[in-house]
């Protein structure tokens, strides 16, 4: 996928992903690639939040709205929390193209679970 995390923080997780190598047959950035970027960013933020409780974060629900096509270059995802609780987290992830145009809006909810033995 070529995802590169450029900022690590519970309040704002940022990463980039190249369009090249992540296209669907018509040459557009694959919607599933947007979903992978969104889940990666939101899950990392959720995991960082969960660690303070000795918990892990597991994806519960992901929804993506694809607003416009990305054809080349890099897309950037910015994940910001909507809710940071003791049992769930919800992040909004906004994906933009190199011109700053929104290409996708996603929302990820994770459930926080106790760390499994040995983890």
TrEMBL record:
Segments forming domain Thioesterase: 26-104
Keyword Hydrolase: yes
SUPFAM superfamilies attached to this UniProt entry: Thioesterase/thiol ester dehydrase-isomerase (SSF54637)
Taxonomic superkingdom: Bacteria
Keywords carried by this UniProt record: Hydrolase
Family statement drawn from the similarity comment of this UniProt entry: Belongs to the thioesterase PaaI family.
Protein name, as recorded: Hotdog fold thioesterase
């Amino acid at each position: 996928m070529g995802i590169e995390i450029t900022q690590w923080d519970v309040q704002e997780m940022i990463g980039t992903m190249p369009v090249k190598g992540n296209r669907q047959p018509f040459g557009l950035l694959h919607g599933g690639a947007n979903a992978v970027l969104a889940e990666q960013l939101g899950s990392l933020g959720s995991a960082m939040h969960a660690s303070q409780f000795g918990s892990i974060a597991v994806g519960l629900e992901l929804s993506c709205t694809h607003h416009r096509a990305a054809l080349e270059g890099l897309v950037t995802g910015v994940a910001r929390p909507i809710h940071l609780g003791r049992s769930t987290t919800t992040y909004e992830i906004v994906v933009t193209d190199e011109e700053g145009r929104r290409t996708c809006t996603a929302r990820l909810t994770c459930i926080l679970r106790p760390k499994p033995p040995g983890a």
